[in-house]
From TrEMBL, chains A, B:
Residues 1-11 have a biased composition (Polar residues). Gene3D superfamilies: Chorismate lyase-like (3.40.1410.10), Winged helix-like DNA-binding domain superfamily/Winged helix DNA-binding domain (1.10.10.10). Keywords: DNA-binding, Transcription, Transcription regulation. It comes from Ideonella margarita. Residues 1-25 are annotated as: Disordered. This is GntR family transcriptional regulator. Residues 28-96 form the HTH gntR-type domain. It comes from the Bacteria. Signal peptide: none annotated. InterPro entries: Bact_HTH_transcr_reg (IPR050679), Chorismate_lyase_/UTRA_dom_sf (IPR028978), Tscrpt_reg_HTH_GntR (IPR000524), UTRA (IPR011663), WH-like_DNA-bd_sf (IPR036388), WH_DNA-bd_sf (IPR036390). Pfam families: GntR (PF00392), UTRA (PF07702).
Amino acid sequence: MPASNPANASPDSPDGEGAQLSGGPAFSPLYQQIKSLLLRSLQGGEWKPGEAIPSEMDLAARFRVSQGTVRKAIDELATDNLLVRRQGKGTFVATHAEENIQYRFLRLAPDEGPATGMARDVLDCRRLRAPADVARALNLKSGDSAVLIRRTLSRNGTPVVLDEIWLPAGPFKGLTAERLSDYAGPMYGLFETEFGVRMIRAEEKIRAVAADNVTAGLLKVAEGCPLLSVERLSHTYGDKPIELRRGLYNTASHFYRNDLN
Amino acid sequence: MPASNPANASPDSPDGEGAQLSGGPAFSPLYQQIKSLLLRSLQGGEWKPGEAIPSEMDLAARFRVSQGTVRKAIDELATDNLLVRRQGKGTFVATHAEENIQYRFLRLAPDEGPATGMARDVLDCRRLRAPADVARALNLKSGDSAVLIRRTLSRNGTPVVLDEIWLPAGPFKGLTAERLSDYAGPMYGLFETEFGVRMIRAEEKIRAVAADNVTAGLLKVAEGCPLLSVERLSHTYGDKPIELRRGLYNTASHFYRNDLN
DNA sequence: TAGTGGTCTAGACCACACA
DNA sequence: GTGTGGTCTAGACCACTAC
């Protein structure tokens, strides 16, 4: 690439993998364009979760930019938790399947003791028409089929979390209570490995609610007991909403932690 | 700076503002050292909140490094929300005092309508001995004096938040209910402007609790009503804990929002 | 026009992992 | 030793703001 960066004005190498936008009026830095191209490759499955992507030098050659430009693109993807850099080894596609230790999105911590794993219990897993609110959240047509999973998480034999998980039926064909129970790692690992659905980002809405009759029984608390209601909408590539999860947390001996800065 | 970066081994310009660590065995990149120096200047008040810091070129000259190295240091401080970059104008010390629109750390949003400001009501502000748990959280000696503020936040005339705020008495000499009530902006702006205490970072522990008698009266809910309990520990420079805030949120028509990635 | 941050390059060397 | 990411430099030019 010559010294005068053509950026969005005069593309001088409009070949296969050239990086410049051709003539668009909107300005976008080269590294952002590289980032988009990398994102597209990730979404398209060119590199699978856990695998290494090409080295910075290789990518620089492929996109015909300098290493520094590729570097900045990768940096942003790394802070977005889409890629993981490992010095001396390479850059890898992030994955929920081998995330050491703990659930990536679960912010629940015990008052005392280490944040060890929790026992999972799938209550049921069935297909039904998505209710209106679920359909709206997941961008489904009303009447579309959805999967509903209900499960609990327990620590030391005591149930702490009751989850109600809604998924679009399409991408999750073949998901059963058995497969959920059999899979060793976190649920998002299974989604990734078995269904090619990778969770990128989520928004949570948190409230305090009173336990209803059924919930009280499942969580072994009194009816009316205050519970944390955590509604999570998870998104996959392209910011597409793909999971709606409604959790009820018993915060008698656990708390939801959050860091602000 | 010569091509062979001396880093931690052979300082070649040990003058006033030279950047290298002298002889320490622990490796630390130059830009991290610059970051520390900038942090020290911020902490020491060389540049006040809202002011501009010197340009990248000036800082590069001062620390005898390249612009790119200063740049990376500033980048990190900017993502930490300690500095704010404004293209064409300069780099500024972040401040709570002019943060347009909304509270920086308050994650409460209304179910409907825009997240407009809320009405503040200071119930009381007094000095007393810090209880054991507060003293522990704020690193005070047991028996040290502390300020306790109680206040509510209301939207459309309805109280939504009841805060109980603990501060060490020392740095907040002269803080009264009147000054709290009179100050126009957010409380952290007042802390910054009047007491030189800038909040950098906070951790929150969230639970669901039942409203007790007194709380129920203040928030105009029934006794036993589920409320969100938000315990926030805020830190200032040097990661020093400086505020313990216990909030009770009525989440009937508001929710606590959180983004996960 | 001058000064600021923002982008991009090309090349050097360092730290780390692995064979 | 080779290859990877990580750091640092020097210099060019672009985009934005203010005077």
